[in-house]
Design goal:
This protein is mainly beta. It has one domain.
């Protein structure tokens, strides 16, 4: 029996095969509800407070300093890649994360294609903040609503080189169909996402 194992091991080496050959892993699609991303300040006051970090591999919020892919605070979203943007209390980056924004529906964005990824830097977050610039519009008076921009899909390169896409559905708790900025709690993200764990893949299916 021992000789058979040695012969098999030698065969695998000669043929270039191993028990650890990469296999294509299935993508994971899910919806995350009510990710709370509070901030202090605003309305002309300095903004502060810790970011809420999210890990696509586990599909959960995390407090880990390294194992996170994106981080939320108020309307700001950071990636675990690049360098500090200058925001107060932003998490340190330890990965190769980056982001791009694709035009289309969640179902129609199926590949990174010709997307250009950016990382956070001193010039600002990769997902550009501000109304009409990245993922949301701010209506101002009289509704003061923050609404996801239809047809904007966030594409994320995770900290370890995998891929995810993200469609933000709501910024209000329990994702009301007709939110009211005066009565519905804000800074609660509900989003659809797809996570492709296969590193160096371009697929978003």
């Amino acid at each position: 029996m021992k000789n058979i194992k040695y012969i098999l091991f030698a065969f695998l080496i000669i043929t270039g095969c191993s028990d650890d050959d990469d296999q294509t892993l299935p993508s994971v699609s899910a919806q995350y509800q009510n990710l709370h991303a509070p901030q202090a300040g605003g309305q002309g006051q300095p903004i502060s407070g810790p970011f809420t970090k999210f890990d696509f591999a586990s599909g959960e919020v995390t407090n880990d300093d390294n194992d996170w892919d994106i981080a939320f605070r108020g309307t700001s979203i950071l990636v675990n890649g690049g360098s500090a943007t200058g925001l107060a209390e932003e998490p340190a980056r330890s990965g190769q994360g980056a982001a791009a924004i694709a035009d289309g529906t969640f179902a129609s964005v199926v590949s990174t294609g010709a997307l250009t990824f950016s990382q956070d830097s001193a010039s600002g977050p990769a997902i550009i903040p501000g109304s009409g610039n990245g993922w949301y519009n701010y209506a101002g008076a009289p509704t003061y609503l923050i609404s996801p921009i239809p047809g904007k899909i966030l594409v994320i390169r995770t900290r370890d080189g995998a891929l995810a896409k993200l469609e933000i559905l709501s910024y209000y708790k329990d994702a009301p169909s007709m939110p009211n900025a005066f009565s519905d709690q804000s800074q609660y993200y509900t989003f659809n996402y797809l996570y492709n764990p296969n590193k160096n893949s371009s697929s978003l299916e």
